[in-house]
Amino acid sequence: MPLWNPLLGHLLAFVPLVKTLPEDRQQPDVFEALCKLHERKDGDSVVYLDAWPFSVPLVIICSPTLAAQACSQEHDLCKSPMLQSFFNPLAGGENLFTMNGPEWKRSRALFNPGFSGNYILQQTSHIIDEAEIYVEILREHARKGDIFSLDDVTCWYLMDVIGSVTLDSRLHSQRRYNPLATALRRQIRWHVLESEKWLRWNPARPFVQWYSSYEMDSYIGNELDKRYAEWTQDEASTRSIIHLALQGYMAHQKDKARPTRLDQAFKKRATIQIRLFLFAGHDSTSSTICYCFYLLESHPEVLAKLRAEHDAVLGSNIEETASNLREQPTLLNQIPYTTAVIKEALRLFPPASAMRGGDPSVQLKDDRGNLYPTDGMNMWILHSALQHHPDYWPEPLSFIPERWLVGPGDPLYPVKGGWRPFEHGPRNCLGQTLAMQDVKITLALTVRYKQRL
Hints:
Pathway: Secondary metabolite biosynthesis. Its cofactor is heme. This protein has helices at 14-19, 27-38, 64-70, 82-91, 101-111, 117-122, 124-144, 150-167, 179-192, 205-232, 241-251, 264-298, 300-314, 321-327, 336-348, 383-387, 432-446; strands spanning 46-49, 58-61, 354-357, 363-365, 371-373, 378-381. By secondary structure, it is mainly alpha-helical. The protein has a single domain (39-446), classed as CATH 1.10.630.10. It has a four-stranded mixed sheet with strand order 1-2-6-3. Strands 4-5 form a two-stranded antiparallel sheet. The two termini are 45 Å apart.
């Protein structure tokens, strides 16, 4: 661990470190650099950090073995309370990211059917509806030759996808104003404060956050009422995640008379989870799409292989790709090189990390037999440090999609548990299948255009 100061803990270790990093560094970059400097040489990759007064002590985990233990069903460790201050204002309350115990299990079980592989595959046509608008917007920018924020354009696109798949409602936020999408983007801007730190001290901030939350709750609540009315009249198409959640909820109420209005407690819980899906799903998937474009532009040999796979599997005429996928969505399961490109982009640029609370009864054990106590600490599985670590990844900073296509005997073969963008264990990412499907469809409809964007 870094040199400890009795007053400032390990905070002084960051001062010289920050000076060596670019000005546009992100928080994980700083901690990754810290881990490289101070991890044990006679044990697995882990660093203890006294972060007072900003948090309880941290155990920063950069080892697949220790990460697997921290997230295992055997220990069933709770999510850290630190996550609540970040996620709850965005979701509107306790959500799947911050819940623990039976409450989390009930909520997870309610939404599991809507995120299954087969069900997400059935949503292909609806994802393509939004993707075609996205492609046209990109082509408009390409024809104009202007400079624009790819992340912003992609975020609006993913917002429309998630709105369609979860609520059975097209938001159309890519082309026009939508109250739900706009309110969420505003809430993120005033809450995350990464690029506009002055907003933290703006006296209007509490009102803006309250009003944005009110707008989101009202919009989602109205949509839930519509879906419930359709469900009670047996008119529901059962094509959206919320329809399946309604079915699951009402199945537990089968001995009760069907109410004319949706139960308000369920409505509140569902609204919170949908807000979470919209935030977590659109932001992380957008960054993955942008990084895929960046990596493909930087590696023309990979782009050529990707285009060749799409020609062979999806048809050589790109104008027919959308219709081909609508007719045969299982084609998305037949493009392994595309999957490898996405997985490698997620390895190099993981959108998040994982955190668990420690426990007096839990000590992590590395492959050398070293024990690591966790009582009174937060365990931070730092995905970027783990997925860039040379002990686990040959050529860790190189973009090599082929590492996902080789067999176990190959030096490039990924180490077990080393790839964790969606995490592992019982609390893995609920939306990972939808995220992968979104990126596959996006690449299928874009990468063969020769015009530079």
